[in-house]
Amino acid sequence: MHVQQVSVPTETLAPTGSTNAYVLGDEEALLVDPASRTDELDAAVESASVEHVLVTHAHSDHVGAVAHYADACEATVWARAGREERFERATGVAPDRTFHEGTSIGKGTTAGATVVETPGHAPDHVALEVGDELLTGDLVVSSGSVVVGADEGDVRAYLTSLRRLYVRNPDRLWPGHGPAIDDPRDQIERLLRHRLDREAKILAAVHDGATELDAILDAAYDKDLSGVRELARSTTAAHLGKLAVEKKISWDGDRAYPA
């Protein structure tokens, strides 16, 4: 299936300052993650027969033009089953249909795209398998790391999603931010190591006597957090939640102690 990637400027926390929208296929095409309307995205949509609109997850930097393109293309709007209200709040559009693990969307002259559930960064997050390649939303990036915050992220689910992707061993990844990834397993391994290394530092900080979130954060991060401290704080809290579920520490949302 032909994949068109269009970088759309957005108010995103990603260092790229943009979100990738995708047009998949030429007949019965899929429009994925239309973050905002731009001339380039208009041209990509007009070059294909877009019949389906969906998002990898309903974060604000992925959904801004769902309503416009759904109306302009008279397209079927899809959302994750069980997350319809979340989708409608984010997009202003009620979905026409829902998908779940294994749903195939947009057959056209090819096999279409198949949904792979990949929660962790967000509870409704999915990837789309297109042949031997995958659109991965905010599951994988080629540089830096992915935010998995305590507000709605789940570190255990995120790590599981990365491992599921690793087992599939795709040829290429098309991420929500940044360039295509031609070394998927290397990048997945990098992200797994980063997340587990951060968790080890957080656990060590608790065992060394840090109890409050900010003290644990300061002990676990050995870099300047100017401009991203709140993200790091939320990530630290998410890891503490995971460690508490695994009974490695005690964490009540305010203070942590060794188990």
Fold and architecture overview:
The protein has two domains: 3-182, Ribonuclease Z/Hydroxyacylglutathione hydrolase-like (Metallo-beta-lactamase, Chain A); 192-258, Arc Repressor Mutant, subunit A (Orthogonal Bundle), CATH 1.10.10. The chain has a six-stranded mixed β-sheet with strand order 1-2-3-4-5-6, covered by helices on one side. The chain has a five-stranded mixed β-sheet with strand order 7-8-9-10-11, with no helix packed on it. A two-stranded antiparallel sheet has the order 12-13. The mean pLDDT is 94. Helix 5 packs antiparallel against helix 6, helix 6 (184-207) crosses helix 7 and helix 7 crosses helix 8. The chain has helices spanning 39-46, 60-63, 66-73, 84-91, 155-168, 184-207, 213-220, 229-245; strands spanning 3-9, 18-24, 29-32, 50-54, 76-80, 97-99, 104-105, 113-117, 126-130, 133-137, 172-175, 249-251, 256-258. 35% of the residues lie in helices and 22% in strands. It is built from eight helices and 13 strands. Strand 3 (29-32), helix 1 and strand 4 (50-54) form a beta-alpha-beta unit. The protein is α/β, with parallel strands linked by helices and 259 residues long. It is elongated.
The strand order across the widest sheet is 1-2-3-4-5-6
Radius of gyration: 19 Å
Largest pleated sheet: 6 strands, mixed
Low-confidence runs: none
User: How would you state the average pLDDT, rounded?
Assistant: 94
How many helical elements? 8
